């Protein structure tokens, strides 16, 4: 067993003699050497010493090393480090003005290649474990999975909303209908007419969403209008609510 931490705890009030500490030897030996000039105690004081061993999960330790000290997200190549060995992710490196957030030394362009190499051999749980995902993935495959994880929170598509919805697509649809009063539409066709007295005067606007329920799936329809130079622009786009792979099965037409 690998011993990462050794702690000696005395059960008496204190130790009169210093207990030798050896990193690779946890046995405490008490030697009573007779010396002609030193009177010997016929009843040497005895001590009970409890040796407490604690181990550190190596995977947990490396996982902590792979955590950026600024954003606390997992770091992916390129992982940067300062001259003192403190690491930081590539995104946060540009935010700290090339200064190490730990020791304030200049970061430079030093890559932590050793940590990047170690990460290749590790497997970690999905970050949505608390939401129900039980998958374990190689470190560099974890991001790809988390982007399509069925347990990931959905960003509410309603304009101006910053809600993160923890649940499935039907739960997100219920949120749009009940909390944002979004119009619901059944069927695969939709007609919309926008009428304005002066079509050259367009105020920037985003229409309320319309949610389609067709082919057993849900879709979000967005309308926008804005002024581009001197010409008014009207735009509509459709978003599939579900897995990216399933989205490839559908096409939409404007006419």
From TrEMBL:
It is an enzyme of class 2 (transferase). One of its GO terms (biological process) is protein ubiquitination. Its EC number is 2.3.2.27. The keyword DNA repair does not apply. GO terms for molecular function: ubiquitin protein ligase activity; zinc ion binding. The keyword Transferase applies. Residues 22-44 are annotated as: Disordered. Keywords: Metal-binding, Transferase, Ubl conjugation pathway, Zinc, Zinc-finger. CDD domains: RING-HC_SIAHs. Residues 22-34 have a biased composition (Basic residues). One of its GO terms (cellular component) is cytoplasm. It catalyses: S-ubiquitinyl-[E2 ubiquitin-conjugating enzyme]-L-cysteine + [acceptor protein]-L-lysine = [E2 ubiquitin-conjugating enzyme]-L-cysteine + N(6)-ubiquitinyl-[acceptor protein]-L-lysine. Residues 68-104 form the RING-type domain. Pathway: Protein modification; protein ubiquitination. Residues 121-181 form the SIAH-type domain. Belongs to the SINA (Seven in absentia) family. This is RING-type E3 ubiquitin transferase. It comes from Helianthus annuus (Common sunflower).
């Amino acid at each position: 067993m690998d011993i990462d931490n050794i702690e000696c705890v005395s059960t008496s009030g204190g130790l009169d003699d210093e207990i030798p500490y050896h990193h690779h030897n946890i046995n405490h030996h008490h030697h009573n050497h007779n010396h002609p000039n030193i009177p010997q105690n016929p009843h040497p004081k005895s001590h009970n010493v409890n040796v407490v061993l604690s181990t550190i999960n190596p995977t947990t330790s490396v996982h902590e090393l792979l955590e950026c000290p600024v954003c606390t997200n997992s770091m992916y190549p390129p992982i940067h480090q300062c001259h003192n060995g403190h690491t930081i992710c590539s995104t946060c490196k540009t935010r700290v003005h090339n200064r190490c957030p730990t020791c304030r030394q200049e970061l430079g362009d030093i890559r932590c290649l050793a940590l990047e190499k170690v990460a290749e051999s590790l497997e970690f749980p999905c970050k949505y474990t608390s939401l129900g995902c039980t998958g374990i993935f190689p470190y560099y495959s974890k991001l790809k999975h988390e982007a399509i994880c069925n347990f990931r929170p959905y960003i509410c598509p309603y304009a101006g909303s910053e809600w993160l919805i923890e649940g499935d697509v039907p739960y997100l649809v219920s949120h749009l209908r009940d909390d944002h009063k979004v119009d619901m539409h059944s069927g695969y066709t939709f007609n919309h007419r926008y009428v304005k007295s002066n079509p050259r005067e367009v105020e920037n606007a985003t229409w309320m969403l319309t949610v389609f329920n067709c082919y057993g799936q849900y879709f979000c329809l967005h309308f926008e209008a804005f002024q581009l130079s001197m010409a008014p622009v009207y735009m509509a786009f459709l978003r599939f609510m579900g897995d990216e792979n399933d989205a490839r099965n559908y096409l939409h037409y404007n006419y």
